[in-house]
Write a structure and sequence with these properties.
By secondary structure, this protein is mainly beta. Helices cover 0% and strands 25% of the residues.
C-alpha cells in the first residue's frame, strides 16, 4: 500500500489503488480543507484527467472553518477554486464550519486579495 506523510511527501506513485495518509502529531495535516488529487495511467501510458476529493481535518479543541459557494440554482459548490461571472453577485456560506464539543458563534469574513 502507498503511504503519504504530510509535510514530507506531496506526490506518491504506486502500483496499488490504496493510499495511507500517515498523519500524526509529529506530521499532521493542519485543520481545514485539504484537496487530494488522483490521476491514473493505463498499460498503454494513457493518463486520466484528475479526480479530486476535499478532506476537512477537524481540530478537537479549536473550531474548523469551511467555506462553500452557493451556485445560482442554490447548489452548494465546495471546490477550492470556483468561477463566478464578472459583475454578478454571489453567495458564500460557512454553515459547514464546526466545533467538536462546542458551537460556532461568530463567522468573520475578510476579502484577503481583491
Amino acid at each position: 500500500m502507498a503511504k503519504l506523510v504530510p509535510g514530507i511527501d506531496t506526490t506518491v506513485k504506486s502500483d496499488e489503488p490504496l493510499l495511507d495518509v500517515l498523519a500524526s502529531v509529529g506530521t499532521p495535516l493542519k485543520p481545514g480543507k485539504h484537496v487530494f488529487q488522483l490521476q491514473v495511467s493505463d498499460d498503454s501510458g494513457n493518463m486520466s484527467d484528475g479526480a479530486s476529493l476535499t478532506v476537512i481535518v477537524q481540530d478537537l479543541e479549536r473550531p474548523t472553518a469551511v467555506i462553500d459557494l452557493i451556485g445560482p440554482a442554490g447548489q452548494r459548490i465546495s471546490d477550492p477554486v470556483v468561477r463566478v461571472p464578472f459583475g454578478k453577485s454571489f453567495q458564500l456560506t460557512g454553515d459547514r464550519s464546526s466545533d467538536i464539543g462546542g458551537v460556532v458563534k461568530v463567522w468573520s469574513w475578510t476579502l484577503v486579495q481583491g
